[in-house]
Amino acid sequence: MDLIARIAKEPLLIVLFILGVSILLISSIAQNASLETDLDEYMPATHPAFVFSDQAEEMFSIKDSVLIAIEHPDTIFNAGTLEKIKTITEDLPGLFPEVYAEGITSLYTADNITGTDGDLEVEPFYEEIPRTAEELLALQRRVESNEMVFGRNVSLDSKATLILAEIDPDADAADLHVRLEAYAASFEGPETLYIAGRPIVEGAMAELGPADMTRMVPIVMVVMIILLLLLLRSIRDTVINLVIVLFGTIVPFGAMAVLGVPIYAVDTMIPVMLIAIGVAYGIHMHNSIHHSVQTNPGISKQQLVKEVLTAMIRPVSMAAITTAIGFMALMTSQVLPVRYFGLFASVGVMTEMVLALILFPASIYLFGPPKIAPKRLTDGGGNKSGNVSRKDGAWGSAMMRRPLRVVAIAAIVVVLGILGTTNVWIDTSFLANFEKGSDIVITDNFVNTRFGGTSSLNVVLSADDPDTFKDPEVLKAMDTLQTDVETHTLVGTSFSIADFIKRMNKVMFDNDPAYDTIPDNQDLVAQYLLLYEFSGDPETLAKVVDYDYQNANITFQLKSDSSAVMSEVIDMVAVHEAAMTELGVTLRYAGSGYKAFVFSELLLEGQIISIALSFVIVALLLALLFKNLLIGIVGTIPIAITAVVNFGVMGLLNIPLSSATALISSIAVGIGVDYAIHLIEHYRNRRLEDVSIHDAAFETLAHTGRAIIYNAVAVMGGFAVLMFSVFPPNRQVGGLIVLNMATSAIGTLSILLVAIVALDRKGKFIRIKSTSGLKEKLS
Amino acid sequence: MKHSLKKIIVGLACLGAVVLAPVGATMTGNEVMQQVYTRPNGNNMSANLIMTLTNNRGSTRERSIVQFRQDDGATEKKLMFFTAPADVRDTSFLNFSYSDGRSDDQWIYLPALKRVKRIASDNTGDSFMGSDFTYDDMGERHPSEDRHTVLRQETIDGWDVLVVESIPVDPKETYTRTVSWIVDGEWIGLKKEFYTADGKLGKTLGIDAFEKIDDIWVITDMTMANVQKNTSTRIQMKDVSFNNELADSFFSERQMRIGPRT
Question: How far is A121 from chain B (nearest CA, A)?
Fold first, then answer.
């Protein structure tokens, strides 16, 4: 404390120091900071699911594709559209370096294997553009009779066709969607072109989210500044608050830049957290200063600083440390960006704490004690309840007289919350981040209704023995699995070695649909495969089976990128695991969609663990701080209520639990614990000063309650702005912060207060030498 | 005197140069490649082939084939029987290739199905039996399909070699430039490099062993490596024999079903 007071005596040095460090850090951010948008960088590389998926992706050259759909109002079987398909197929690799030259699939590249009158024909569907009506009709017939193409590359109504372009995962595809759209636009009319696929959605999202945050955060700040000015009626304290929040944000980002840690998308939440938390410290400091000046109007600078620091060092530092530890709990996560998030958010919190404790005293040394207008003398100044403002009085009376009612209401809220929580569904979907009417969603819907689907899941089958995937029993089991999983409404098509064998069998029996089956003879399967290699494209085969026929890949096209859908499909696949095991085949999953799914599960698991962990840590810290285990438990009530209401509202409003929305619940912990500490500390101090239970409660409400409400109002008002964001996830973030601030504040001022008073009445809150508690009991 | 002596020396030197110089030194690229194309390869031949395919992960597939070839000048007929792996044994493949430029005729017999199917395919640029070789690479590409230039002379393993650059007449071909190392006078290639339109090396053909059998040069071990896909195919030839005249009826659907018994 002496140290802080001594530092605070040098306000100009502090300003210079802050300015200097800010300039250094900002220049470091400007030079070194790098935004990491490659989702693969987020994945824990050593996690077995990711290791296996990476191996499988390499084995079967599984890559994300961009999908270009061409829609013609009547039919794609006309010279103009066929010409466009050819041109795009031929031009893409040259125009877009991130596209694999060998990785383009379209009607123009596809080989058609057919059997007619004893002949086996292996031909491209077309090379020269068919022009006559007969030629066009013949082409249409060939397409319609090939189930490897019809419904996959050409829609069943023949009005749309798909060009798939594999994207190099290492290529920087940041503005690929913009360049592709411009390119596609040059082919419009009468056809309409649609660009879809994971690389497109990822690219658009990597840009949109942080860009929207950068646009919205300044507006949030402005609204908050106005609210703080109105509430605090002090330019000086508003500016200090602003400095705390800004510097508190610059330090963690500067530290990241200095240490060479890239900025991940989750890190856009750091300023959000730090604004909500930093403002709380400032307001409590402001409140305490005003309290002291009002109690003792002629107070000297030194005396004021001493009083404020005596009152605030403990609660502010404890609040900051518990919050920081809550963030540090995120470091148990398996996901690297979340670990960094936890680390650097706590760095920010600690910075804000130090700043709050130094800047306010420094401002007293610099400008003298604040002048307070007499009419604002409404804060709980005296030791008697009569001095409390009417509003606080009414609230306080309600709390004190009808504690059971408060408990009952809280109980109802908690029950409703828990009911809602059971409705919470875990879901991570990139597409859900975009407006329903946005181009990206419309395009995705279009491709999903006409074709197999824009997302994919790879099911990788492995066996110990070579040639397992020539075994008709195994192939039939695969076919059964595919047929079964395809019954899911959001599963479009599937593709495996079984489809090749069925196709070859049908072709060899002169296109007789009765032979669209797996033959019973393993040698025949082997001979079909040899024949396919002879006549077709051996690389297509390499995408479904490895060289030794020991590993096979089934690709399912999904019409949704939601992790909830992925989870359902995986459950359907898993049903077949027993049958496969009997055949000596193990089932695993791969692909970027699957990795994103595992990633979101890991992320959520980690966040739920960290919330639970910080709950325990907070309870223990509060118990230690107040040397009372019961206080520790009671102190977690606001956090618990905030968390339950948060998840409950998410369940009721159908907001899925995703990485972004789950991080918000960390705010519940951070803010809830601050409120609890300030409330309990103030109440305890009053009680230690021998104030009666009743008066202590009323005074705490008037003093801490006011700070809590100011804090909540300022932050809520600021983040309410986010609810008007153009980026739906940011809207959810804004809404949930407003909700969490409100529940934290109301919960602290009602049920926590009631609980503490109840504990106190039972003599379990504090051991006091005086008899005031006893007196009250007797009266 | 001095003058005329000098003339004589120069004249002799010139004469010597003409006599001692390799034949190809004065030939155009087109002439060299025509020599290669028409190098005698026997009117008929039989051999055991081992084809080893290696994929980009280093896994290999090995196939053993008995091959019979007969050429009457107008039509080259090839009949191949798989002997290994076991599950494709007796699968046979018949190919008629015509010198007048018509598309090849091909038939396949699958023993498990007991059916012969004619394959209708225009496949000169296609992969030869799923390997890194194309039908063109297997020696069926006519010199008139490219414009050839002799770039320089080199020596490889003691052989005088002409380095010939070939540019396809059709600019849309996968490989827009090839460079061949041809043994001067013997007209056998020692290696060949294939370049794609962007100037990058696409694949390389290396000849690891060749020998004269019945006075005919036979490449007995060669490997085509696709540099970009990181795959390769090695073809080894064993038990090569020439001039065992086969009846025309041998190259037939019936024989495809019977197997490699003559």
Answer: 5
